[in-house]
Design a protein that fits this description.
The chain has about 250 residues and is mainly α. It is built from nine helices and two strands; from the N terminus they run ααααβααβααα. The radius of gyration is 22 Å and the shape is globular.
Length: about 250
Amino acid sequence: MITKSIPSLFTVANLFLGIVAIILIFPENAKPEVAAMMVIIAMLMDGVDGRVARALNAQSEFGKELDSLSDVISFGVAPAFIMYSVAFQELSSAAAWIITALFPICGALRLARFNVISGMPGYFIGLPIPAAGGVLATLALFHKDIPVSVLMGSTLVLSFLMVSTVKYPSFKKMGMPKSAIWVIPLIVVVTVVLGIMFQSQLSKIVFIPLVLYALYGLKKNVDRRLPFSGRNRKRRKQAELLEDIIPSEHSA
């Protein structure tokens, strides 16, 4: 029974960190760097719980639903509030509220679709909410260097990508042997210590691979739709080669 509960403990830790991130952006606290770090550590918890469940053969519908509910808070509500607190409060109330609310709403829609529709093997359909939330939370730390209009546009793009049909590579196949589970608490502790010691720097560093992942799926989708790019260009060359080799009826 205890073994079956271990994955849910990581999920609850994910939810706890999301709630802490929200508390840390209240005006009386105002620590967006620490809040963003809480979201990043929550991403670690979210990535670990599923692998632990598979390693212990402890997967369940309860764990799946708990994970989705936790993700809405940690990677939907918390990052949106972080961005709102540092960048959107100077905007008109209507625009700020709508854009802020749209992000967790799209995240919830994406999770609901994920739970009821089977995706493609090796791929996610739509940008996963942990990646979107990680990008938004760390992007907010650059609010002094990036115009508010760009931050607003980025929030809308991330919201759209979550509910889109853009394919993103899944790393779920990278499993974890049961014998390696003992390493997880050590990894978590090291991550927390580094996060406390290098709050702003580490959060901004993590932003780079997250935004590259978000742009990767978008680029692949654009390449697939362009007529003379990637695979389409290769097919066109093959067709032209066949035309050169096989004479047409009119030239015969």
